[in-house]
Amino acid sequence: MTARPDRDRRHAAPAPAATPTATGPAPPRTVADPADTARPRPIGGRTADRPQRPHVLVARLDNDGDVLLAGPAIRAVAANAGRVTLLCGPRGQAAAELLPCVDELLLHRAEWIDPEPEPFDPAHSHRLVREVAARPVDEAVIFTSFHQSPLPLALLLRLAGVPRIAATSVDYPGSLLDVRHRISDDVHEVERALGLAAAAGHPLPPGDDGALRILRRSAGTALPPALPPQPYVVVHPGASVSARAWAPERHEQLVAALTERGRAVVVTGSPDERELTARVAAAAPVRAVDLGGATDLAGLAEVIAGAEAIVVGNTGPAHLAAAVGTPVVSLYAPTVPAVRWRPWMVPHVILHEPVPCAGCRARDCPVPGHPCIDRLPLATVLDAVDAMAAAERPHRPPLPAPEPPAPRPPSRPDRHGRPARTARRGNGSTRQRGATA
């Protein structure tokens, strides 16, 4: 893409081009050197750029589940954008590669977001500044959770020359933000992100219901051969944070009881959770299948999509289930309020015990016995599985088809010599890549 003359003054030498991935969702890739991030990830199969609309950088720098929850807001931005670049962290890359309406990924491990941050290295931040400056980005929208600050990233984007930046910020942003959005903390993460997108001039377009969506693999894609042919329930015992996970022995009891009731069970988990999934599946060796570490995130989505229901904690696969319309039994440790993080627009049951320490935001539970979820009666969970397996799955209408872009009026510099900010009117449409759910 050729840079416009009024932006050439801020462009650094572009970084070497990355090799495009194959069309369709790519398998998760890890960043070998945490310092060597800010790498471009072109995504195959996108529609052509619409140069009369702005190039927007959207950012969500935390985990897979958080990136999935930003998906509806990213679609809203894409409805008015000619090109969308998603800046994400390595912990959210696999989910980012499944989002529709994203043209390019940039990776950056943010020291102010990552739960296990690397020591601060100025060169690491300088690389991101150079990568962003090498692109004719017209504006940026920074999506964050209630406990995160957008201002460190806003500063880096200012250094890269991004002329318009929007974010939700409790802290005074000074001149780092052009749109400072304020919203109650007691709203769902999806609503929080959609509110920011609308405040930045990108409302959700007509025909988009605001549900979570992902790019789905083709119908002919082979699923793991171990999947049972009959209806099954997915049990996902792991979580990215230990305080949100039901005890392994409780999951063993659940799997044994489900199979005694005649249900087939599929136990899922990441490669790091193979020992856990093997232990849980062994509780019913005949009717429980262990798929720990056997799928990438896209494959896990297909396994969950084929299930009657999923039993899972407050972690990424709960939001993946919402994206494919599978009802959720949420063993929800209330470290953060469920109003912010419950499964979105999908049948679900939230299960936890009332405890005075709710809202603690602990990563490791400091209370002996983990009383908020480990004391849940097994019968309560089994009844919830029965209810969710019988629940009607949501209908997901197709996303709106692309429309021709409206001409953009020529901009005049503002009093500081910067390009004027053009108001965006009307509603665009969402660009699509591949089949979605």
UniProtKB/TrEMBL annotation:
Q: Where is the composition biased (Low complexity)?
A: 13-24
Query: Which keywords belong to this entry?
Result: Glycosyltransferase, Transferase
- The residue ranges flagged as biased composition, category Pro residues, are 397-410
Q: Which GO terms describe its biological process?
A: lipopolysaccharide core region biosynthetic process
GO molecular function ontology, one term from the record: ADP-heptose-lipopolysaccharide heptosyltransferase activity
Q: Which Gene3D superfamilies match?
A: Glycogen Phosphorylase B
Question: What Pfam families does its record include?
Answer: Glyco_transf_9
Q: Can you name a GO cellular component term?
A: cytosol
Chain intervals for the UniProt region annotation (Disordered): 1-54, 391-437
Compositional bias per record (Basic and acidic residues), positions renumbered to this chain:
1-11
Composition bias of kind Polar residues appears in: 427-437
Tell me what this protein is called. ADP-heptose:LPS heptosyltransferase
What organism does this protein naturally occur in? Conexibacter arvalis
The organism's taxonomy opens as: Bacteria, Bacillati, Actinomycetota, Thermoleophilia, Solirubrobacterales
